[in-house]
Design the sequence.
């Protein structure tokens, strides 16, 4: 802990680059036929957001690998898609949450009385992402008391 999504992406054969992207673009997964897949992260974003974006784009990569889809497209993650209701966006967001905040670990820390702020620092995610994860696991009530 914390999980390092960039290292995991690299171990899976992806290139991870920080790039100058416009302020509404959090990142992208770029895959062109015959070339290594690449995750782009917005160099102006903070560490927590870059980590989540990397994990999110990794989710897209894993899903498409499972489908053995030889795709050639650029997947832009922008502010709109963070709350997206498209199945692929939901999948990528859940993948990122599970990767960065493993359920067993979250449950253990919650039982030990750690609150959402402490956990967000431990997992190196935004407090908002941590609260969302706790809510999804049905653990948010106790975290709210602490906050
Ligand atoms: Zn996405």
Sequence:
């Amino acid at each position: 802990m914390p999980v390092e999504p960039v290292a995991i992406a690299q171990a899976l054969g992806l290139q991870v680059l920080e790039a100058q992207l416009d302020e509404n673009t959090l990142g992208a997964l770029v895959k062109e036929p015959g070339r290594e897949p690449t995750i782009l992260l917005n160099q102006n974003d903070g560490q927590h957001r870059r980590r989540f974006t990397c994990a999110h784009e990794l989710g897209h990569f894993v899903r498409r690998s499972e489908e053995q889809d030889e795709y050639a497209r650029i997947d832009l993650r922008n502010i709109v898609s963070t709350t997206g209701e498209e199945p692929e966006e939901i999948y990528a967001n859940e993948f990122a949450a599970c990767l960065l905040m493993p359920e067993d670990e979250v449950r253990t820390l919650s039982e030990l009385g750690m609150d959402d702020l402490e956990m967000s620092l431990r997992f190196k995610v935004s407090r908002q992402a941590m609260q969302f994860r706790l809510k999804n696991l049905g653990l948010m009530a106790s975290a709210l008391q602490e906050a």
Notes: Residues 56, 60, 75, 77, 81, 89, 92 surround zinc ion (CB under 6 Å). The radius of gyration is 16 Å.
